[in-house]
User: Fold these one by one.
Assistant:
Number 1:
Amino acid sequence: MTRSAVTVSLVPEARGGPFVFWDDLAAACQRAGELGFDAVEIFAPGPDAVDRDELRRLLDRHGLRVAAVGTGAGMVKHGLSLTSPDAAQREQALQFVRRMIEFGGAFQAPAIIGSMQGRWGGPLDRPAALDLLRSALDDLGAHAERHGVPLIYEPLNRYETNLVTTVEAGVGLLESLATGNVRLLADLFHMNIEEADLAAAIRGGGAWIGHVHFVDSNRRAAGMGHLDFAPLAAALREINYGGYLSAEALPLPDPESAARQTIQSYRHFFGRTAPS
Ligand code: LER
Ligand code: MN
């Protein structure tokens, strides 16, 4: 059975980005709980930005879990990348993600490597950058394992990375790792740009898919764009997907409407009475 989640960003530098709730973790948890979400996905400025005891209280009070923690603040706040040509920068990026893994791990939540994967160019050609990415994922995957969580790696669309842009290429990358503890994030927005057939890509990803960003073609809440969710839900059922469908969506026309639309679509396509 899948579970629902909604994003909350606590990163002012990410303003304009695809997060439903903003700035106020307590208010986001309250509303997520009231609307019936199972979890929140947290985009935090850093590993110490959220008071862990306070978060634990909020989760308990509103019957929520943490679905995942984003690591993109390492990029948007600190300009870090796991494939930077500069070795000192790469080490800082690794340190940042290791500590985000520890933060998430305290809540049994995996960390997501999305924009922190960077891109190739300048002094680094594609094979060299992919080698750096592999070595980072091996290091971080093993670190996540020590904290009892998988690591989630996200292919992005061509405007955000030039390393890995499809589920198939993502599977190829993960198969080449020494660690077996990294799973793919299928972000339906990125997939809508890059995949020829989203449902086929999901079937091809199979058991490698460990997290889903549940969002429409225009990055608005599921149901506010032109994606056909029925075949995607069928493909996810076919691969026995049992993870989160997490709304990484723009807060349009406002956070409340985006959250409501998401949970309504989630219930329609993934609820117990979902069409089979
Ligand atoms: C970025 O476009 C994205 O989809 C995030 O989940 C990764 O940082
Ligand atoms: Mn995403």
Note: The beta strands are 3-9, 21-22, 39-43, 65-70, 111-113, 151-153, 182-187, 209-213, 244-247.
Number 2:
Amino acid sequence: MKPVELKNGIYWVGAVDWAVRDFHGYETPRGTSYNNYLIDDEEPTLLDAVHHDFVEVSIENISRIIDPKKIKHIVINHIENDHASGFARILDIVPSANIYLTDRGKKGLERFLDLSRYKVSVVKSGDTLKIGKRTLQFIETPMMHWPDSMFTYIKEEKILISQDAFGQHLATVERFDDEFVNNRSMDELEDSVIDYYANILMPYGNVIKGKIEEIKKLGIEIEMIAPDHGVIWRSHIDKVLSLYSDMVDAKAKLSAVIVYDTMWHSTEQMVFPIAKGLEDEGIPVKIIKLRATPKSVAIKEVWKSRGVIVGSPTLNNGIFPSVAEFLTYLKGLRPKNRLFAAFGSYGWSGEAVKELYEMAKAMKLEVFEPGIRVLYKPSEEDLNKCYEFGIAFGKALKEYHAKT
Ligand code: FEO
């Protein structure tokens, strides 16, 4: 894609990755983009780089605006590889550029690059840099997404460069939120924001909440939020801020998701009467079979649902591997404010349900016990018990939702 002008003299010069489906183990069915930005001011400034596989695309985009050798300043808002692995190539072209990053950014990046060869300045919140007509203000945002992260605010243009925050893993021809909504839909954009938050930022909700409050107190006006992935926000800023406000509090609608896997369909047979019980209690329910669904999608559905019911057969005295993998991933994302229950079939020992509850308790989730277990294959009576289990969980979920 060609460069796209955000405002007079400020350009997106990134790259769209249409093909990526595995983003460090996180499935990205919609691809992604690596966004970086060029300010063509008296002292040309590059904000962030891109993944090293796409750095030539970004350099070509920069070249359509200025000779890349004229870049005077480089701001590194975040050192994760999807952004920072392209810097080595850019620094080959402009080794004399002044580099700005946080202290944690410098300590991290020097593990990958010999920074002693360059002019590096460590910046902190409140520091500014005049580049001509514009002034950059730096705002440290540790854990949004890594300890090194920061935002850069372009004061005169009221543009916030927000690196990972407010991003989406979306490969699109549209660069702005309103274009995407016009050509696609707000529902898809919202779903992408939630998917990204649930899989990338979920563990840091409290930190993000504090940082958003801090930015509000700075009283800075924002006309555009330009993240390092996905579309740039210029028309629906209130919408994405409101989505984040709900997400940092781990809010979810009264709904449930059943996430399961199965060996010989016995655990699977338990799913449908449980779902029917929930439906009859008026709880909207989604069903996710793990081996048929990307893990990231299952995580997103957990994030959207107040109630989480997990089903696993017992295999080798433990949880079925795909379910264990899912829960290990979920545990790292530190979910909260969810009511959990478990079920599953077994042949002789039947430890899986007990272990599922142990994992949920280790995550400090509220649990609805006891779970339900079935020997070998559910009988008619067992299926009725599953239905009653769904009804009982639905009632408990309504109470839990009302009081928390
Ligand atoms: Fe897009 Fe945390 O990197």
Note: The first strand starts at residue 4 and ends at 7.
Number 3:
Amino acid sequence: MERKTIALVTGDGSGPEMMAVACAIAIEAAKKDGIEIVFEKTPMGWNAYEKYGDTLPSESFDKAIKIGTVFFGGVGDPKLDGTIGAKYPVMKPEARCLLALRKHMGLLLNFRPMIYYKELAHLANVKPETIPDGGIQQVWIRFLLEDSYFGNEDLMDLRPDECAKIGVKLKKKVMGDEELVTDIAYFRQSTVKKYIRAAFAYARSAGLPLISIDKANVMARYDFWRKIVTRIGEEEFPDVPLTHQLVDSANALLFTPAKLHGVIACGNEHGDILSDGAAAALGSMGMMCSSAINPDTGKAMFESGAGTAPTLAGQDKANPIGRILTAAMMLRHLGAVNGARAIEEAVKKTLGMGYRTADMCAYSWNGVLGTLGMGNLILSSL
Ligand code: IPM
Ligand code: MG
């Protein structure tokens, strides 16, 4: 069997419980493709702080970067963010771990395919009649670098003196008594071109149109974005239908999902905001899966967009399906296509048979399953 090593961040809150079942399922499913998956623990988050005094121990970080494939269970806990995090803002794990990994691994493409399950229509926030009979395909591909997320840090490296003059500050250094604080947002031509070509290529291979989201009516960087998208569309992908959508109207279209059927290209910040809305519109955040890829090196991180469910930690209650579907994305990336498909089908089958975790029930019901129960059922129907 071919062996694939993956750096495993079990994470905070309910992360370890959800990741335990997701890892067991990934290992079992990958065997269908003759692949042996080996997880190497790389602790990050508040759990790592408690053990090693750092939410991002350098040993974990270096190892994750070196391995190049990371299965990320989510970090953060509002309680600790407010206590230790208030004292040592630099330790707040969401930015410290996630953003550092994205930047150092060069993870440009963030895939967030939305899946609508008829069985879970009661969780969705769209009217059932807005879903076409043939179902809905909404593949969000968020531009995961640069923009307002990395602007300050990147510009400080380039021009520290100018930054000080115009109020550019690192988030962890903000005191709240400044006269002026600036966030820099930028797009680099070469990065946008690489990104948009990848999004077009994905749309072409999936037979879907490309919907590009921007704020070209107001912002320079989005005017630039729209011009690049239009040119690449006309010159290189004339066969892929392209539409442009302003971000505010795209937000309104989340409630008529058929109008966003396709591959959706959007900036880092817009994508962060809209993808949560899309997940909640079509189902729930607990079901969202997500992968982040460097298209040049193949380095990748698989992090369910869902949170760490800190209030459920240790109680075997959190819904593991977002993590499990994210494991399917990871398997597909590693070439375990049969395993990936088997996981997706097992999830569908398990939901189809009526099994639910507590967050999926519209009312309290004593047949509800815990994290482990749901995980084991999916595992056994692989
Ligand atoms: C996401 C998250 C992250 C982001 C946070 C945790 C830094 O919200 O992956 O969508 O803003 O990108
Ligand atoms: Mg988000």
Note: The longest strand covers residues 2-9.
